[in-house]
Specification:
This protein is mainly alpha-helical. It is about 30% helix and about 5% strand. The model has no long low-confidence stretch (mean pLDDT about 75).
């Protein structure tokens, strides 16, 4: 409420005044503008964003339709939170088309195991159609260990055959 804001920002309690009246008035206007559900709030703050309303709270209809480029249409969540729906990194051509340079996701699928953190959000699916994958690391890094998390799909007889020390993956560094 205004009395609390004035006490915090203008009067400053027992200390010196923090904002003059003009600065306080500008602060109130800015705060009120942020409370309005206005499209392109990210644009106002010069933060590049694909969605329409401040991070997906009330996404634009055209944004919801565009999500089908990233997520199968039957799996699109109406609130538009794409970061929670991504199962894999979108294609490079789509990222380039939208000028997306970074992909940030939630930690809902991450795992701590034996005091080691595993980021399980984005992975690679290897199968007959895509038997290999290459990960380019643009900056050198030092690693003392490499762990992989995986699972196999198939019927019971195929999985029993693999249980006999059959190699299912190979890592080349």
């Amino acid at each position: 409420d205004m009395a609390d804001l004035r006490a915090i920002f203008v009067e400053g309690g027992d200390g010196p005044s923090r904002l003059n009246q003009r600065a306080f008035d500008q602060l109130i206007v800015a705060l009120k503008e942020q409370e309005i559900l206005a499209p392109n709030l990210a644009l106002l703050w010069r933060v590049p964003s694909v969605d329409g309303f401040d991070g997906g709270v009330l996404p634009l209809q055209r944004y919801i339709h565009a999500l089908s480029l990233f997520v199968p249409p039957d799996q699109v969540v109406p609130d538009g939170r794409l970061r929670e729906q991504l199962r894999q990194v979108p294609s490079t051509s789509l990222l380039n088309f939208l000028n997306i340079q970074y992909v940030m996701t939630d930690k809902v699928r991450d795992l701590w195991f034996d005091d080691i953190y595993y980021d399980r959000q984005i992975g690679a699916k290897l199968d007959v159609a895509q038997p290999t994958t290459v990960v380019n690391v643009p900056q050198p890094l030092e690693a003392t260990r490499l762990d992989l998390i995986g699972y196999l799909e198939g019927d019971a007889s195929a999985l029993r055959m693999l249980a006999a020390d059959t190699a299912v993956a190979r890592v080349q560094v």
